[in-house]
From TrEMBL:
Residues 1-19 form the signal peptide. Pfam families: Glycoamylase. Residues 505-527 are annotated as: Disordered. Keywords: Signal. Residues 233-479 form the Glycoamylase-like domain. PROSITE patterns: PROKAR_LIPOPROTEIN (PS51257). This is Glycoamylase-like domain-containing protein. InterPro entries: Glycoamylase-like_cons_dom, UCP028431.
Length: 527
């Protein structure tokens, strides 16, 4: 449950943090320009490789955001089985994607001194054992998944499929599995509990039968229902499914072939173009530019598609972030509150599915929905989600820091609370009708009533990545992630550095072995 310090003094704390941040705006930074950027090429390891430039220190507000957001995962996860709720306080069911974010969040708590390593080990081991030991199979009820995949939503107590409308999800299984593999690489001590974490993580990943979902090969289907079979749609076009294909390519037991990546990237072209002055691979809801990047450092590494375009996926997300902000400044639909420092469209809660008159026109509003602006299909009903901006911190800190300050300063009284930012708000929605969720704040519009796990995760973990690359550096040690990237055709950057380092170590080992053989074979000196 929430800690005592969360329940008192929130308004005073916010004012103090804002004062510490200062009111001055950061100088405007020239936005990324369309066109290619130079690719990083590593030919040999340096004796003392240059350190990457350190980011500017974050205002104290971000430490408070991290702590509160971490506590969401630590406090709301069921201590009996490790199930993390999809949302809180409504807490209707667990989300396997939220579990993946939670497993990654616990080490952030260790590194910041908020929990002890043993606490995190115990919670992680409990979670992995429950996931591993819960029944799998084709039955409609009473199982947690099938063929290594997991159902999107699970019962908080039993861990079984929540309801008949819940699908066996390839992407949500992937989000959970990234957290599982992160745990495998982070808990590296010679300790029985940490060894068991590594073994369970390996077993969970190895049993996923990725080719089973290649119903229309080589693409991967979105999922399966026991009642009616495979979902008719495959993962095509640029979106969060990058993580699905990388995981499927990296499997040591049931991998897909590299042609799956080629076929997937072949569907990109309809999404490449210029939007809001940025030339990039577009996906309208911003989570598609964030989720894979939470765990994988795409700076400087490129696949064949991005080599052809002259940028990398990190730069692509940076341009998408600039385009999001530019769209809010233009505000073509005339929604309240949009501007240079208040922006961010992604998947989030909304007030209700309804059509209402706004600005002299009938406008569509939605409840939970993917919202976004971009080259292809987009939807905007005036609902802003803080995770869209704050989860983009590594891409464009010069935009995200002022946006985060503004969110707290202008909306924090009702949007920023015990576990950080509530899911979303809509200043334009002030209609006196029944709401699906949330509440109307007089004079401020609609505000969500829940925190959502898959929005909390990018906030916490991308702040950690911006500070010191924490999640990225751990994941670089995972052989499965590296194998998936290499089989997808990624080269350059840190992948090339690792390859050069391994080649140098192999050469040194060979020289040492040769020298040892020479000492063994050399004749003994005569008296």
């Amino acid at each position: 449950m929430p800690r005592t310090w969360f329940r008192s003094g929130l308004a005073a704390l916010a004012l103090l943090l804002l004062a510490a941040c200062g009111r001055e705006r950061q100088p405007e930074v020239e936005p990324p320009r369309p066109g290619p950027i130079e690719e990083m090429v590593v030919t040999a390891p340096a004796d003392q490789p240059p350190l990457p430039p350190r980011p500017e220190p974050l205002p104290p507000l971000f430490r408070d955001i991290e702590k509160r957001t971490f506590q969401f995962f630590w406090d709301t996860t069921d201590e009996r089985n490790g199930m993390t709720p999809d949302r809180f306080p409504s807490r209707p069911f667990a989300s396997v994607a939220a579990i993946g974010f939670a497993l990654t969040a616990y080490p952030v708590g260790i590194e910041n001194g908020w929990i002890g390593r043993r606490q995190a080990v115990d919670r992680t081991l409990l979670t992995l054992e429950f996931l591993h030991d819960s029944p799998q199979g084709p039955a409609e009820t009473g199982t947690i998944g099938h063929r290594g995949f997991f159902y999107h939503f699970l019962d908080m107590r039993s861990g079984h499929r929540y309801e008949p409308w819940v699908e066996l999800s390839s992407v949500d299984t992937g989000l959970m599995m990234l957290g599982v593999l992160f745990a495998q690489s982070y808990y590296d001590r010679d300790d029985p509990a940490e060894q068991r974490i590594r073994e369970l993580a390996d077993a969970l990943y190895r049993r996923i039968e990725w080719p089973w979902l290649q119903v229309r090969p080589p693409l991967v289907s979105m999922g399966w229902y026991p009642e009616r079979g495979f979902i008719d749609h495959d993962w095509t076009g640029y979106d969060e499914a990058m993580l699905v294909y990388i995981l499927a390519l990296g499997s040591p037991t049931h991998p897909v072939e590299p042609e799956a990546w080629t076929a997937w990237t072949r569907t990109y072209d309809d999404s490449w173009g210029i939007f809001q002055g940025q030339e990039y691979l577009s996906f309208a809801p911003h989570f598609g530019h964030q989720y894979s990047h939470v765990w994988i450092d795409f700076r400087g590494i490129r696949d064949a598609y991005m080599r052809g375009r002259g940028i990398d996926y990190f730069e692509n997300s940076r341009r998408a972030t600039y385009a999001q902000r530019s769209y809010a400044i233009e505000n073509p639909m005339g929604w309240k509150g949009y501007g240079a420092d208040i922006w961010g469209l992604t998947a989030s809660d909304g007030p209700q599915r309804t059509d209402q008159e706004y600005g002299g026109r009938l406008r569509e509003f939605r409840h939970y929905s993917a919202r976004g602006a971009g080259i292809a299909v987009a939807f905007d009903d005036g609902t802003i989600a803080p995770t869209a901006a704050i989860g983009s911190l590594p891409f464009a800190p010069e935009l995200v820091v002022p946006a985060t300050r503004a969110l707290v300063e202008r909306h924090g009284e009702y949007l920023y609370s015990s576990y950080g930012f509530l899911d979303a708000f809509n200043p334009s929605f002030e209609y006196d009708i029944p709401l699906k969720t949330g509440r109307i704040v007089p004079g401020r519009g609609w505000v969500a009533s829940d925190y959502i796990g898959i929005d909390q995760g990018p906030i916490l973990l991308m702040i950690a990545n911006h500070r010191n690359g924490f999640v990225w550096e751990v994941m670089k040690r995972n052989p499965y992630i590296r194998r998936g990237l290499e089989r997808a055709g990624f080269t350059g950057g840190w992948l090339a550095e690792l390859q050069a380092q391994e080649a140098a170590e192999a050469e040194a080992s060979a020289r040492e072995a040769s020298a040892e053989d020479g000492r063994v074979d050399a004749p003994a000196p005569k008296d």
